[in-house]
Amino acid sequence: MIRLTDEQWERIRKHFPEEHIADGRPGRKPIATRQVLEAALWILNTGAQWHMLPQCYPNYKTVHRRFQNWCRNEVLRRVLTDIANELREKGLLDEEECFIDATFAMAKGGGAEIGPTRRGKGLKIMAIVDRHGLPLSVSTHAANHHEVRLVQLCFDFYMIEAKPENLIGDRAYDSDSLDDELRSQGIEMIAPHRSNRVRSLTQDGCRLRRYTRRWLVERFFAWIQWRRRLLVRWEFYPQNFLGFVQLACLLILFRQF
After folding, report:
1. Number of Cβ atoms within 10 Å of the Cβ of 25
2. pTM score, two decimals?
């Protein structure tokens, strides 16, 4: 069974709306939100189908319905933003040096935001992490989009106000137009040059030494892929899959307290 500690629940409970039924109204009393959230975490960890929820959790239909409401209303995104800013105030997040990358996930449930690739149809999970490997932005996009075009969309899901001073990525992010666009926002893009680059080199060898720490974003993807529900997207609605990704990030941030 997956259980949140009392301290963890107290940090986030204000974001989750409770379902209320008047005392005199007939019908069953609403299920506590904490129990519903713990049931969703069990689905995230095991990758099981909704109807396979153990009997120790609420009815799977109730859990599924309320989880979809959270995803639709961006409740989980607000929870992540609140926790990330609390960590930054405590000095546990460092946005001076951040890393960006994407990982591929197969999609077998149909729905929007799925694109064909040589590996089959799927989507990309884009992430920006700080110098400790903690998530600052997570989003999902169709897999047939180039990562350069998704960088600005990642900042739409950025959790804290302060933008990174240095953003480090692999060769996929070697783009002069992207460099200029980010530089206008006060962000320096650092990425190794492509082997087929035609124009003059733009990266300084001293700054490229930061690239050796890019394993931090790879470690982040390894962390979230321990959650079996994220290995394959079965959800028809993209916001539901993103909700599971956000839950996985929440568990990572909880470790810092």
Report:
1. 8
2. 0.92
